[in-house]
Design a protein that fits this description.
Elements (H helix, E strand, L loop, with lengths): L3 H6 E2 L9 E6 L10 H6 L4 E6 L16 H12 L7 E6 L1 H15 L6 E5 L17 H10 L5 H4 L2 H20 L12 E6 L7 H5 L9 E6 L10 H18 L1
Parallel strand pairs: 2-3, 2-4, 4-5, 5-6, 6-7
Antiparallel strand pairs: 1-3
Length: 252
């Protein structure tokens, strides 16, 4: 049974008591659990989607933002121990891919090996870029998120709403930009990197470098689109996850 703490971190938009498998989804910087509602709705009944809700947004907006990926991963590894009765696959988008990787490292050290990790729109942990968007002005931060085309235009033109979400966006950008990969045991689970072919935030070479971080299999999928390619190619991603889960279930 999930703990009260778990209920703060995990959203189940389509609870599936009979699901044989669980997919844990980790949002991008400034994102929230609701980003994965369409993915949850489209997923096969045999896979229940658990969407992570970071503090500082939506129904957790009164909580302090965690601006450190290590701290986020420590919390989430504890929370997800409640959900390991069924096999887990991770899907992380952008910053969420790094969080998912660090959570997987922690769980594997405790004997829980995910069935797979999908790293979406994110460079490998060991690929460092010198970025400092989190230290820019509000106006520059707004321009950054607008350029990535992942925020509804109506929200970007609503100053009151923007002021509410900017602390979470800035905190997440700080977490993503100050993250430094610590060499050590990586993961044993297979990793699939998925990127858009015009994404300014990750190159194919940076995505292929995820192969260095697993002793398991690695695959790279490049789809048409930018940083939020996922919106146009959701069914392709759902099929890829379903196929992966089906293949691992067959092998076991």
């Amino acid at each position: 049974m999930a703990s009260h703490d778990s209920s703060r971190w995990i959203r189940r938009f389509h609870p599936r008591a009979d699901a044989e498998h669980r997919l844990v989804c980790f949002p991008h910087a400034g994102g929230s659990a609701s980003f994965f509602h369409p993915l949850s709705a489209g997923m096969a009944p045999s896979i229940e989607v658990l969407a992570v809700q970071y503090p500082g947004r939506q129904d957790r907006r009164h909580e302090e933002v965690l601006d450190d990926i290590t701290e986020l991963a420590d919390h989430l590894a504890e929370v997800l121990l409640d959900w390991t009765a069924r096999p887990l696959t991770f899907f992380g988008h952008s910053m969420g891919a790094t969080v998912a990787f660090e959570v997987a490292r922690r769980l594997e050290r405790r004997g829980v090996v995910p069935v797979g990790l999908f790293a979406s729109a994110r460079r490998a942990p060991s690929c460092l870029r010198d970025e400092a968007v989190h230290r820019t002005s509000d106006e520059e931060l707004i321009r950054e998120i607008a350029a990535l085309d992942g925020t509804p235009p109506a929200l970007l033109s609503d100053e009151e709403l923007l002021r509410l979400i900017l602390p979470a966006v800035r905190g997440d950008y700080k977490a993503a930009e100050t993250y430094r990969y610590q060499p050590g045991p990586d993961v044993n689970c297979p990793i699939t990197a998925v990127i858009g072919d015009t994404d300014p935030k990750v190159t194919p070479a940076e995505a292929r470098a995820w192969a260095r971080h697993t002793t398991g299999e690695f695959a790279l999928r490049v789809l048409p689109g930018g940083h939020f390619y996922l919106r146009e190619h959701l069914s392709t991603v759902i099929d890829a996850i379903s196929d992966h889960v089906r293949a691992t279930t067959t092998r076991s």
